[in-house]
Amino acid sequence: MQIQLNGETIELPAGSTVAVLIEKLALAGKRLAVEVNEDIVPRSQHPEFILDDGDRVEVVHAIGGG
Amino acid sequence: MTDSADIQLPEDKPLEIAGRVYQSRLLVGTGKYRDLAETGHAIEASGAEIVTVAVRRTNIGQNPDEPNLLDVVSPDSYTILPNTAGCYTAKDAVRTCKLARELLDGHDLVKLEVLGEHKTLYPNMPETLIAAEELIRDGFKVMVYCSDDPLLAMRLEEMGCVAIMPLGAPIGSGLGIQNRYNMRLIIENAQVPVLVDAGVGTASDATIAMELGCDGVLMNTAIAQARDPIRMANAMRLAIESGRESYLAGRMPKKLYASASSPIDGTFF
Question: Please, what is the Cα angle at B163 between B131 and B50, to 5 degrees?
Answer without folding.
Answer: 105
